[in-house]
Amino acid sequence: MSDDASMSDDESTPETIRIQDLAVDEIRELLTEEGRVVDDQQAAALRDFITEIGGLENALSAMALLDELEHAA
Predict the structure, then answer these.
(1) pTM above 0.70?
(2) Where are the alpha helices (DSSP H) in the chain?
(3) Contact yes or no for 39/69 (Cβ under 8 A)
(4) CA distance linking residue 43 with residue 7, whole number of Å
(5) Contact between residue 61 and residue 67 where contact means Cβ atoms under 8 Å apart
(6) Partners of 5 in the beta sheet?
(7) Count of CB atoms within 10 A of residue 47's CB?
(8) For 20, which DSSP code?
(9) Which of 37, 56, 58, 59 has CB atoms 3.0–4.6 Å from 3's, for a disulfide?
(10) At 36, is the secondary structure helix, strand, or coil?
(11) Is the dihedral of CA 57, 39, 16, 49 positive or negative?
(12) pLDDT band at 2 (very low <50, low <70, confident <90, very high)
């Protein structure tokens, strides 16, 4: 899974949008569309975590590792 989403008015030249570049309300709206309800503080924390860990792919890998460790415990 990539941390980029392709969006463009002209399909021949996609514009890359990273989660780290979105405003808190945009992140919250996207999560709400997926059935996840978060407040502004949680959306900001998520954006900051993704930025600090080096992108969405790294964040997903870290979460998967933490899940494995939790199940192993």
Answers:
(1) no
(2) 24-33, 40-53, 56-72
(3) no
(4) 21
(5) no
(6) 17
(7) 20
(8) G
(9) 56
(10) coil
(11) negative
(12) very low
Q: Which of 70, 16, 23, 6 is nearest to 62 (CA)?
A: 70
Write the pLDDT tens digit of every residue in 13-56: 567 778 888 999 999 999 999 999 999 999 999 999 999 999 98
Q: Which residue has the tokens 């709400």?
A: 32
CA atoms of 73 and 58, how far apart (whole Å): 23
d(CA 50, CA 19): 8
What local confidence, expressed as pLDDT, does residue 35 receive?
A: 96
- Domain regions of the chain by residue span: 4-72
